[in-house]
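Reproducibility note. Readers wishing to regenerate the assembly model reported in the main text can use the exact inputs given here. Chain order matters: entities are listed in the order in which they were concatenated for prediction.
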Amino acid sequence: MRQKPPEPLGSEITSESLYLRRREFIKSAAFFTGTAAAVGAGLQLLSNRPTGGDGPSLLATPGEAPKVVRPRGPYDTDERATSYEDATTYNNFYEFGLDKGEPAENAHTLKPRPWTVVIDGEVNKPQRVDMDTLQSWFPLEERVYRMRCVEAWSMVIPWLGFPLAGLLRRVEPTSKAKYVAFTTLKDPEQMPGQKYPVLDWPYVEGLRLDEALHPLTLMAVGMYGRVLPNQNGAPLRLVVPWKYGFKGIKSIVRISLTEKQPPTTWNRSNPREYGFFANVNPEVAHPRWSQASERRIGELRRRPTLPFNGYAEQVADLYKGMDLRGNF
Amino acid sequence: MASPPHPWLKPAVLVGGLYPLAHLALAFAQGALGANPIERVLNQTGLLALILLVASLACTPLKVVSGWTWPIRLRKLLGLLGFTYASLHFLTYAVLDQGLALGVILEDIAKRPFITVGFLALVLLVPLAVTSTNRMVRRMGFPAWQRLHRLAYVAASLGVVHFVWRVKKDLTEPLIYGGVLVLLFAIRVAEALRKRRARSSAQVPARSV
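Running the prediction on these inputs yields the following structure tokens for the assembly.
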């Protein structure tokens, strides 16, 4: 005899309305999650602009320590150096992108060897020299310098390089030489940012001859005991520690001595905000922000900015009698 | 055409809208914001404020164009989220960036147009946030409330100007937000003109009788 399956208890039966509401609930939950995720992801996508620090690509051009590292020079600061990672992933180098994280990601397309530097203009010995040859002319010195960006942040970087003065003496400036003009490589294949007319490419910078001959002025080929990473201006860059960072032109292919003050990139782009001299001066505000204080990368609190970035004792003489508000 | 109630819609937008804040706070606590974390927080909260303000201003035009009513239900929430991020942006500047150095902050606001304009935008948003409740709408009367809330357009426009002046080079991104605002404004103007014409053409035969 077949037995009828037992009827479920009345209390166990889900009422139809509850059953429908349950479906409604699941549907709502799915819409809720989907919408929340879409809104969150959309906002994140539109607003999240990493400014360096999270790419492993900083070692895309791993630097070998150069063979000759001289002991520290007489101009070093003993302030703690910025971390290598910060100094190599937080860069203004518009040839590789406008955000500070982009140069570390994109600069692998630059080929720092072979590399030729042209030295010409008002010199007795103009020449075109291979980078390795140029570097072999001078012993390398380590210089630990403060670096102050016009954007009111700063770093402390141990550079490896040689004084520009040595190079200039070697090519013998003529009596007409008053300024030194520098030019960065222009090659949109190697420097993809140059495909966009953000600035007038190639980047050019300049110094007065006495500034260029100052013993603090360095041509750097390395930092932190390693070869200069591409995003920091390989294979050859200028370092002028008492001036805002944009004067420190990167990836130099030409050094010309001139009679007239050379037009320089940021000064041409916006003369109201970026002067030719660009000396660090806490008393002359940038039109959009004060320069009285700065944030050292790696620290949260601001610190007061020093005249000439702390190098007044060495360089203030160069500007005696000059109006540093007009000639900023 | 009314939309179904979608009870999940507002909570979902709230959670999604606060997600970047949670992400940012966590990354800040973990030290994962790169070499200049304060700059990161400043830039991101500022951008989020602008995006959410533009989004809240897009609700009405979206309804006009599509006929959907659900965007209207999000307008207030998006506006308040935008105000929240704008306030956080200012607090980041005042507390984290300037360490509450009042003299410097006041000098910045008074002397540097880029900061003046940003601060003005935030100030304009305060009365809008305060009057955002239904009770305030009733107390003020809808026409007066609506007139006041047109300040949101001024605030968002100032936000775009603030962004344009902040950028050192490449104005593409701020100009995109500016363009969207202009488009949203144009839709409103076109709709207002259409309504006025509809009203006057409805009145003409009435008068001729």
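We highlight two features of this model. The helical segments of chain A are 16-47, 84-89, 102-106, 131-136, 164-171, 209-213, 265-269, 312-315. Chain A touches chain B through 53 residues (CB under 8 Å).
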